[in-house]
Fold this sequence. Notes:
By secondary structure, the protein is of the alpha/beta class. It has five helices and five strands; from the N terminus they run ααββαβαββα. A five-stranded mixed β-sheet has the order 1-2-5-3-4, covered by helices on one side.
Amino acid sequence: KNSSLVKMAESVKSGDSDACVSAGNTGALMAAGLFIVGRIDQVDRPALAPTLPTLDGKGFVMLDLGANADAKPEHLEQFAVMGSIYAEKVRGISNPRVGLLNIGTEDIKGNELTKAAFKLLKDAPINFVGNVESRDLLTGVADVVVTDGFTGNMVLKTIEGTASGIFTLLKEAFNTSAK
């Protein structure tokens, strides 16, 4: 009850703070957000939404990256709207491009979740650019990318592991050639 994380969430709820940031346990932060701060009206579930890097240095917001392993099409629509608002208001991107992570760019691709979400996103009050593939994420194909938390977390861990592996290979190559 007296942890800094709880005190931080209480400060947001009371209006003394506008937001909170934590390097602590993600699950505990999500719980504090839900149970102390509360949900945004018309948002059924929170989403983890970090900004990930792109080759041009602009980055993109991706959500959900692990808060909701199972999501419904309506959740992905809510994530898209939240991500679009965040990209515009916080990142300063006018009319941010929102993409749905999928196994192909064609409108008919995907599983039941992505097909149903695609239909909702086409009619949502966002700049929906359609399906995007994971191989294109770092090229800046969209300013906001939406997926369920299970898939998003797998993509995040793959990006992290690939970056770490490439860094290790480069370090070994530089150390070998320096001898």
